[in-house]
Design goal:
- Helices cover 19% and strands 41% of the residues.
- The protein has one domain.
- The radius of gyration is 15 Å and the shape is globular.
- It has two helices and seven strands, in the order βββββββαα.
- A hairpin with a 2-residue loop joins β3 and β4.
Length: 112
Amino acid sequence: MTHHVPETVVRRFTDNSCAVTTVVADPADAQQVLYGTVTRDGVLVGSYYCADRVRQTDWRIVTADGDHLTLDDRPVNPVSEPAAVLVLTTVLTGHDQREIQQQLRDATRPPP
């Protein structure tokens, strides 16, 4: 009995002056993103991964210091890989912690 071992590939692109690197399993068929990293000027901004790889849902972001991204002590879970990349390439590249927290609030709460 032979077992199918999915091929993996690395994909790279640039978004908002950040280098994004993703590892994709089975690129010819299912194209399941295993995880990705974002760097800016060679410094890690953070990474993201999919907790449910089969459905490609339940995304998580890990900051450069190794903690899951939270806002007001609640996890920030993007709805998709592009949303995770957006948070990492725009929000987390803010200049200070207050700016980052405000951008996260603006991005996760509906306007009044």
